[in-house]
């Protein structure tokens, strides 16, 4: 069985750090915590789980801090987490099984990263990240902000999921770091340009965000998944700016990089739906369902291949007075979101129509 060092960087995480460490303490062999300047009870809480604690002066560079944390590891593999991440009991069992069975020739292991949930506990957004890496390979973190771990070699996709469950965060921090880089004359890499545009969009600076998304795409140096993501983000910017033509163009631009993704299909379906071009809208929503879920490493939203197109198809077939088909799609949507008020209302609405039709036939 392989041995594992947990390596984390933290700052003022007293609200979440114990939850994280308690969820993982029995699946790792060592816990290494690098504190970048906490002024709350973070260190006090961490001491309940480990005495391997280091201080690192924060210099607006996440990669440097993470690389320093990796240097403290003494075991065969390194697991990294953020303080607001955790392992659920189910995924803790999966992790233990992975640890028992992991072939030591594996250089890096990816895990699902669950980022959002709906009211029924269904995952609404997720991606894959390489979470467990072989120490002797000396893999390095790259990037002052929105850093990534550069891995290579014998890679393995596991069934383990890390759940992201933040209580709060410094929403301006990343934007400040990027602006500091720009002001100092440091050029933004294509990846930095993409993530800077994301930060601008998150702060409702849609015109500037659109400019940087366009700049990123025009560079032709982006990773395919980021290119596609940028097209959808760009469409959102133009939607906020009420420029429907540019919004549509941005969605269609994603076709340059791959076959139509389910999100693109749903966006096109909605565009036709708004114009009451019902048959065209039906075509695109059916394409979203036909595409199904694929295990991309980039951010995914299962809604685009499950309840959302079914719900929209329900509305569209209702417009065409094809109530039986509309009802079937609503029932398909209800399997995923049984407590959604819209879907419950639709069910009652169609059952009322069917009852009226039965009464008229008596």
TrEMBL record:
Q: Where are the transmembrane segments?
A: none
Keyword set, alphabetical order? Glycosyltransferase, Transferase
Question: Could you give a GO molecular-function term held by this entry?
Answer: glycosyltransferase activity
Q: Which residues form the Glycosyltransferase 2-like domain?
A: 5-140
Which EC number(s) does UniProt give? 2.4.-.-
- Please identify the protein, giving its name as recorded: Glycosyltransferase
């Amino acid at each position: 069985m392989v041995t594992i060092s947990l390596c984390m960087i933290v700052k003022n995480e007293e609200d979440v750090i114990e939850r994280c460490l308690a969820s993982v303490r029995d699946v790792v062999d060592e816990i290494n915590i690098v504190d970048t300047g906490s002024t709350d009870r973070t260190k006090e809480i961490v001491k309940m789980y480990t005495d391997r604690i280091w201080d690192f002066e924060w210099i607006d560079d996440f990669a440097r801090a993470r690389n320093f944390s990796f240097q403290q590891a003494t075991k065969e593999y390194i697991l990294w987490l953020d303080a607001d991440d955790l392992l659920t009991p189910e995924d803790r069992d999966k992790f233990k099984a992975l640890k028992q069975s992991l072939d030591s020739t594996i250089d890096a292991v990816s895990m699902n990263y669950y980022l959002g949930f709906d009211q029924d506990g269904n995952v609404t957004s997720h991606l894959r990240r390489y979470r467990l890496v072989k120490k002797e390979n000396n893999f390095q973190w790259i990037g002052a902000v929105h850093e990534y771990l550069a891995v290579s070699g014998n890679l393995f996709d596991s069934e383990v999921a890390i759940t992201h469950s933040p209580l709060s965060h410094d929403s301006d921090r990343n934007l400040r770091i990027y602006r500091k880089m720009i002001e100092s004359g440091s050029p933004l890499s294509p990846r930095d340009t993409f993530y800077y545009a994301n930060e601008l969009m998150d702060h409702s600076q849609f015109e500037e965000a659109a400019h940087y998304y366009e700049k990123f795409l025009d560079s032709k140096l982006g990773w395919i998944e980021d290119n596609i993501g940028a097209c959808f983000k760009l469409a959102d910017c133009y939607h906020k700016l009420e420029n429907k033509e540019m919004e549509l163009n941005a969605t269609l631009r994603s076709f340059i990089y791959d076959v139509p993704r389910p999100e693109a299909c749903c966006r096109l379906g909605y565009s036709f739906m708004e114009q009451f071009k019902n048959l065209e809208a039906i075509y695109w929503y059916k394409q979203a369902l036909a595409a199904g879920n694929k295990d991309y490493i980039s951010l995914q939203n299962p809604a685009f291949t499950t309840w959302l197109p079914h719900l929209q198809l329900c509305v569209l077939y209702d417009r065409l007075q094809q109530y039986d088909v509309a009802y079937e799609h609503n029932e398909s949507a209800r399997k995923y979101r049984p407590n959604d008020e819209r879907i419950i209302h639709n069910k009652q609405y169609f059952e009322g129509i069917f009852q009226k039709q039965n009464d008229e036939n008596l």
